[in-house]
Every structure is written in structure tokens, then in C-alpha cells.
Design a protein that fits this description.
Length: 353
């Protein structure tokens, strides 16, 4: 891609992703020079530097670790019928990439700690150069040293496809702006991603016109993430079901409930990344300190997608064991369905004699 084309900004996120896929380090650094004033010919490691609130970071990480450790899925073994035994075994993903937006140490915690708890072998962090020293310093607290000072779509592409300097990963995690999310969706054709996470959004649900100060606090906190953040207010009147339908239609990242009628809706809400209940459950508590993961689906994706959990960093394999007698019992089913589908070689496997 020519420098003139880039300087004219006549490009798409797909152009950035494809350029990094084709040209590796050189493309990463050219795009980083354009967007972040980066210098050099190879992606730089982030160097830990500066004062960070170590005690607060460690305290937040402890809660995240405790909550995610409790989510470990159990392996399952079942004899479906005599001679037919199935096993579902969970194991960690081998390598993951964690995208950390500029200076958001909390997002580092939300990605790195569950990955460690799951047993991931290699954890790669990419973060924009501005703010990278603080992110690297926080990562060092958890023994993570592969932190790259690159951001944006070029960072997502580098983790997905690899460059001469950065080895590719098996799955990419982390929130980001519209460009980062688009890059994640594009690379998801070739490498797994967690979910589209960002821009931030909230639905504040309140009883009528009550609690206006808290409503203002919660909406202001979400809008602080940037001009593309979204905040909606639902006021619960006599028609509680109508309020619930409105909440479900938004399918928002965060839902905050305050007031008796609003709080009573918590068990009925399906379409939300995370639900916060009551006056003393501000959404920023979940962003930083409760232990719940703040990487959550946005843009309506909560209709079908969950926020990050321990299982996001793991995968399952099904093991199947069939004895001679078990296969004899299964044979009529195999043969009938294979015949229906016209697959004669499938049908032949039902009899080993």
C-alpha cells in the first residue's frame, strides 16, 4: 500500500488488516507511524515505567481470579448405553492475545487473570504506545513480559496472522474502539475472537422519576468512555412488562437497576452483558473491583453472546469409546440413518465382522 494512499486516508480497516497479513512488521510500523507517531522498523516491546497503584491492581486481580476460578467447567464421563462411553474434557487454549486499549490497566486484568487461571501457556498483550509503560508495569506484576507497544487494527492483525517479530495466537480477546472491533470481526474468519466489545453502553432502569442523581452518575460514567458511548434510561411505571421488553430490546452491555420495581426485574433479564442491582452496585465497581469481567458484548450482541468467563479461555474435546457389544447395539441406528442419507461407506462401518 502506498504512503500517498495512507496519507489521503483512502483506506478501510480491511486494507490495514490485509496489509499487515501480507507485509508483517513493515506494515505494522507504517500504520503505527501514521496513527500513533511510532518510530522504528519492528514492533517495540513496551517497557514498564512510571508509578502505578500496585495495591489496587493486585486487589482487583485477586477478586477476578477468585470469581473466574469458581467457573471452571467440569469434565464429564457418561456411559450413554452399555458399551458406549462419552467423555467431554476441557483444556486451556494454547496461546491468546489480549488487546488493551490506551492506558486501561483494568482491561489487562480482565484478560490476563482469567487466561492464567485457565492455564494458557502464552499470553500476548498489545496496547497503544501512549499508555504502554503503565500497562507493561501492571503486566509485570503478573509475570507477563510479552507486551507490545502497538495498537489499533494493526495490532489485531499482527496477533492474528503473525509477523517476523510477533508469533500468531490462537484466540484474540479484549475491548476496543470501532476500528479494533472491525479488525477483530475481519480476522475472525481465520482466528477465534472473544466477542465485539465496544463502544461502551448502558441502560439505566429506575422507578419512575426517582433516583435522578444516581441515574445521572451512571450515565455520566459510561459516557466518559468516549463520544461513541451510549446511555439509555428506562423508567418503570405500572406496566412492568413493557419496561422489561424495552430493556431486552436494547440488549445492552450494562444494565443498572435501581428502585424496587426495577430491581425486581433482575432475574427476568436475558439480554445484557452484566446486570447491576441496587444503589450500591455502580457499574464502575464491576469495571474495576468486584471480580466480574468487564469485557462484555455490545451493539446488541448480548442477545446471543456472553461476556468473558473462564471457559472463554478454554475449549472442550469429546472422547468417544465404543466396545464391540456397544457397536452392535448402535449398528441398526447407524445403518438406517446412513441409508437415508445415501452414505454407503458410513453404513459399512456399522459392522466390523
Amino acid at each position: 500500500m502506498s504512503d500517498l494512499k495512507k496519507l489521503n486516508k483512502d483506506f478501510t480497516i480491511a486494507d490495514i488488516v490485509n496489509d499487515v497479513r501480507e507485509r508483517g512488521d513493515a506494515a505494522v510500523m507504517e500504520w503505527s507511524a501514521l496513527f500513533d507517531d511510532a518510530v522504528g522498523t519492528t514492533p517495540p516491546r513496551a517497557v514498564p515505567y512510571g508509578d502505578i497503584p500496585t495495591d489496587a491492581i493486585v486487589a482487583a486481580a485477586q477478586n477476578v481470579r477468585a470469581w473466574h476460578a469458581a467457573q471452571r467447567p467440569a469434565d464429564v464421563v457418561l456411559e450413554v448405553q452399555p458399551g458406549v462411553v462419552l467423555e467431554r474434557r476441557w483444556s486451556p487454549i494454547r496461546s491468546v492475545g489480549i488487546y488493551v486499549p490506551k492506558n486501561l490497566v483494568s482491561s489487562l486484568i480482565m484478560g490476563v487473570i482469567p487466561a492464567q487461571e485457565a492455564g494458557v501457556e502464552r499470553i500476548v498483550v498489545c496496547t497503544p504506545p501512549s499508555g504502554a509503560p503503565a500497562v507493561a508495569a501492571a503486566a509485570a506484576l503478573f509475570g507477563i513480559d510479552e507486551v507490545w507497544a502497538i495498537g489499533g487494527a494493526q495490532a489485531i492483525a499482527a496477533m492474528a496472522y503473525g509477523t517476523e517479530t510477533i508469533a500468531p495466537v490462537d484466540k484474540i480477546f479484549g475491548p476496543g474502539n470501532a476500528a479494533v472491533n472491525m479488525a477483530k470481526l475481519l480476522v475472525s474468519q481465520d482466528v477465534a475472537i472473544d466477542l465485539p466489545a465496544g463502544p461502551s453502553e448502558i441502560v439505566v432502569v429506575t422507578d419512575g422519576d426517582s433516583f435522578e442523581d444516581i441515574v445521572a452518575q451512571e450515565t455520566a460514567a459510561q459516557m466518559e468512555h468516549g463520544p461513541d458511548s451510549r446511555a439509555f434510561v428506562v423508567r418503570v411505571g405500572d406496566d412492568v412488562d413493557a419496561a422489561l421488553a424495552e430493556i431486552e430490546n436494547y440488549a445492552a452491555e450494562h444494565v443498572f437497576l435501581i428502585g424496587p420495581r426495577a430491581e425486581a426485574l433482575a432475574p427476568r433479564i436475558r439480554n445484557a452483558g452484566s446486570v447491576f442491582v441496587g444503589e450500591y452496585s455502580p457499574v464502575p465497581a464491576g469495571d474495576y473491583a468486584t471480580g466480574g469481567n468487564h469485557v462484555l458484548p455490545t451493539g446488541g450482541w448480548s442477545r446471543s453472546t456472553s461476556g468473558l468467563g473462564l471457559e472463554s479461555f478454554m475449549k472442550s474435546v469429546t472422547i468417544q469409546r465404543v466396545s464391540k457389544e456397544g457397536l452392535q447395539r448402535l449398528a441398526p441406528t447407524i445403518e438406517a440413518l446412513a441409508t437415508l442419507e445415501g452414505l454407503t461407506a458410513h453404513r459399512a462401518t456399522a459392522r466390523r465382522d
